Automatic annotation (TrEMBL):
Organism: Rhodococcus opacus
Domain MaoC-like, residue spans: 15-116
Family: Belongs to the enoyl-CoA hydratase/isomerase family.
Designated name of the protein: Acyl dehydratase
Pfam families in alphabetical order: MaoC_dehydratas (PF01575)
Amino acid sequence: MTSPGRIMLGDTVAKSRYHVTRESLVRYAGASGDFNSIHYRDDVADAVGLPGVLAHGMLTLGLATQCVVDWLGDPARVTGYRARFTKPVIVAPDDGAVVEVVAKAAQVDEAAGTARIDLTVTFDGHAVLGKSQVWISLR
């Protein structure tokens, strides 16, 4: 992988895989205050027509962004981020789910000391975030 101070357009700067379990969802619910039962009860998810218990969207976004933070080594170097939620992450009761993230340099402005990193975030072979981007300081 490329170091944060020396990236070029198109470089893959980071890759990560995150295993999300039902326990992860309960912990995130406690931290975020989002106790919507579609995130931990199969019967409720089924009753509202969902294919299963869903990971919180903001948890998915946080994991995707964490990939870049880990590469940078300093969360203060993230200056902005955005994404569209395109598909849910279904968290199976026993096996959980694996979210995969690939981060690539999409814009690099060495004079300004900034870059935009585009994220490909997938679960089960399908993109779960669209237009997922992180802006960073290179300094």
